[in-house]
């Protein structure tokens, strides 16, 4: 049954700017990284991707999903329809997760094309594919959180909280021993062994303990657990009892 709900949610994004975000944000990320430091293009691209552009994109996708419902009928059409609200909430999360995965594929495609234009700056290999996969897996938990923030507090809250979470909280703790306590640091820390980049944007030196792959299994497990917890916890917000971007009614 959830497949039909996913199709319906996907159709809501038809001709919407949100679909363009999946292409535009990876492209901006690559251009920005190239202009900032072409000499460390690959490592720089993944660093900015993990601390700024992925959080922004997820926040925008979730906020756009909220705006579509609010502008259409202020959620009245959804709540008056004979649908299972819990399943619809799960479908909303699933569609944005698929869009997030699509953005990683598009990002890899841009990196591959860059390899033809400027061979010394870009290439697609196992390390890059692994880094993209880890980045997607460790940011899934942000989707139900941002959907909740958008519905509860509005468009700006979803984007701002997720951006500041990655840009400030994520960088602050990603290189520390207690990195695992901060969800926003998980994706950033994964870039250390996968790409060899420090959370501060500098390439890791040989022998740096941040190269260790031992952090990957707990990060992926923690992300999966938090994703499941937030999916269940936030589904309660998708009901007429909650306001549409500013409090409980």
TrEMBL record:
Pfam families: ABC2_membrane_4. The lineage of its organism: Bacteria, Bacillati, Bacillota, Bacilli, Bacillales. It comes from the Bacteria. Keywords: Membrane, Transmembrane, Transmembrane helix. InterPro entries: Lanti_perm_SpaE/MutE/EpiE-like. This is Lantibiotic immunity ABC transporter MutE/EpiE family permease subunit. The chain crosses the membrane at residues 21-40, 46-63, 93-115, 121-141, 153-174, 210-233. Coiled coil: none annotated.
């Amino acid at each position: 049954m959830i497949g039909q709900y996913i199709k319906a949610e996907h159709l809501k994004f038809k001709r919407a700017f949100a679909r363009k975000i999946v292409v535009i944000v990876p492209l901006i990320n690559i251009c920005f990284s190239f202009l900032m430091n072409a000499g460390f293009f690959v490592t720089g691209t993944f660093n900015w991707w993990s601390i700024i552009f992925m959080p922004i994109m997820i926040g925008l996708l979730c906020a756009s999903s909220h705006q579509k419902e609010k502008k259409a009928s202020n959620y009245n059409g959804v709540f008056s329809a004979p649908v299972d609200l819990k399943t619809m909430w799960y479908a909303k999360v699933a569609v944005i997760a698929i869009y997030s995965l699509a953005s990683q594929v598009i990002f890899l495609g841009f990196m591959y094309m860059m390899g033809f234009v400027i061979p010394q700056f870009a290439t697609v290999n196992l390390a890059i594919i692994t880094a993209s996969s880890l980045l997607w897996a460790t940011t899934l938990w942000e989707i139900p959180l941002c959907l909740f923030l958008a519905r509860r507090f509005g468009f700006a809250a979803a984007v701002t909280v997720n951006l500041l979470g990655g840009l400030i909280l994520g960088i602050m703790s990603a290189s520390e021993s207690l990195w695992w306590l901060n969800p926003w640091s998980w994706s950033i820390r994964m870039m250390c062994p996968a790409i060899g980049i420090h959370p501060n944007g500098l390439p890791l030196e040989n022998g740096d303990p941040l190269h260790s792959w031992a952090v990957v299994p707990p990060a992926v497990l923690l992300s999966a657990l938090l994703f499941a917890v937030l999916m269940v916890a936030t589904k309660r917000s998708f009901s007429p009892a909650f306001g549409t971007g500013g409090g409980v009614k």
